[in-house]
Design brief:
The chain is an alpha/beta fold and 366 residues long. Helix content is 43%, strand content 26%.
């Protein structure tokens, strides 16, 4: 047997081993897909994949081979993601609003293979997950321009669902009109009051009449149906495509830092690890120093709070619950000790959920 035949036999043997290992890897991917479906987690985890590549590269001593191993490993991961996409194609994702709304855009980018289910309001989307009609809900937590979304926070405090992920979507407002329309011919603009407020200077400078709509997508839909070239909507580029409108002007909002944070709500909590962020709601006794004492407990155990908000409790006048986000995991001895001590000082204490890392939704997560 010559060297060529020996090398080919070796490749055949290795390829058979790779086929068996491939099967094992895809079986593990199936288990991961099932977990992600149950916890409504996105398939693509950029940090996890990068860390795995860096770790496995240490096994390749030859620098030249290592440069070929990296694209090989990336391809394996790409195939694994494609398999998981196939398995998760039936995930039902509730959102508030109509097709083209920013919540619709966020839900589609987080779950590109999911079935997006439109709900008339936040509560309907939340309840669709509670009653099992949907696997998860994508709802806004806060906007950098307008602040917190109180109704969603109240449901997080009172409801049964958990937050398993948080994502930020940059809000870019655009002037949308009928094909052939021109900005200088527009007389009225339709949009959600918040969008109109974000574009106040632009509207004033052009002398447009501002008319409120339920949301930005509904405004675009009305313009498309109107047939009126003097009527425009303020909404996203994606909305223009959905309703056959033209982008007459882009990025017309006053601040380019405007973004909305969306949370994924699920029936089961996500597992946490070091470096994660947890969300906690609690109430304290109506007495001096009670809130300060609760905050001190959290700090004493080494947790860094990144957010602290208060919300009125509707059932009790002038009483409030508090919502915090803090860095770290509660699934440690230290975390459990902190919760036990906090529970002794708080009238109500609820773990809302946790998320690994806040992701900016620039493009579809494929």
């Amino acid at each position: 047997m010559n060297d060529l035949e020996q090398a080919r036999q070796q490749i055949n043997r290795v390829d058979r081993e790779i086929a068996l290992l491939f099967t094992q890897r895809m079986e593990a991917a199936r288990t991961i897909a099932a977990y992600k479906k149950a916890h409504a987690l996105p398939i693509f985890d950029r940090n996890r994949e990068q860390a795995l590549i860096e770790q496995n590269c240490l096994c390749i001593e030859d620098p030249q081979l290592r440069s070929f191993y990296i694209p090989f490993q990336k391809k394996v991961m790409e195939v694994s993601r494609a398999y998981q996409h196939h398995l998760l194609s039936g995930t039902r994702v509730a959102y508030s609003g109509v097709e083209g709304a920013f919540a619709y855009i966020a839900a589609g980018r987080i779950f590109p293979d999911g079935e997006l289910v439109s709900c008339p309001d936040f509560e309907s989307a939340y309840q669709a997950v509670e009653n099992g009609a949907c696997d998860c809900a994508v709802l806004p937590l806060e906007n950098s321009y307008a602040g917190e979304v109180g109704q969603v926070m109240d449901m997080a405090f009172r409801g049964s669902l958990y937050v398993s992920g948080v994502y930020s979507l940059k809000v870019a407002q655009n002037l949308l009109g009928l094909p052939g329309a021109a900005p200088d011919r527009i007389r009225r603009v339709l949009s959600h009051p918040q969008a109109l407020s974000q574009c106040r200077d632009y509207i004033h400078a052009h002398g447009y009449e501002a008319v409120t709509a339920v949301n930005t997508a509904v405004a675009a839909k009305e313009v498309a149906k109107s047939g009126d070239p003097t009527l425009a909507a303020i909404a996203s580029r994606e909305t223009a495509k959905l309703y056959g409108l033209a982008v007459l002007d882009h990025d017309i909002n006053e601040s380019d830092q405007n973004s909305t944070r969306f949370a994924v709500f699920t029936r089961l909590p996500a597992e946490t690890k070091a470096g994660d962020t947890f969300l906690l709601c609690f109430t304290v006794k109506h007495q001096a120093g009670a809130l300060a004492e609760a905050i001190q407990i959290i700090g004493r155990y080494g947790y860094n709070m990144t957010s602290l908000r208060s919300r009125p409790m509707k059932e009790t006048a002038f009483h409030y619950y508090f919502y915090i986000e803090a860095e770290g995991t509660l699934e440690t001895d230290r975390g459990q000790e902190m919760l036990e001590e906090l529970a002794q000082r708080c009238e109500r204490l609820k773990i809302v959920g946790s998320y690994a890392e806040e992701t900016e939704l620039k493009d579809a997560l494929l």
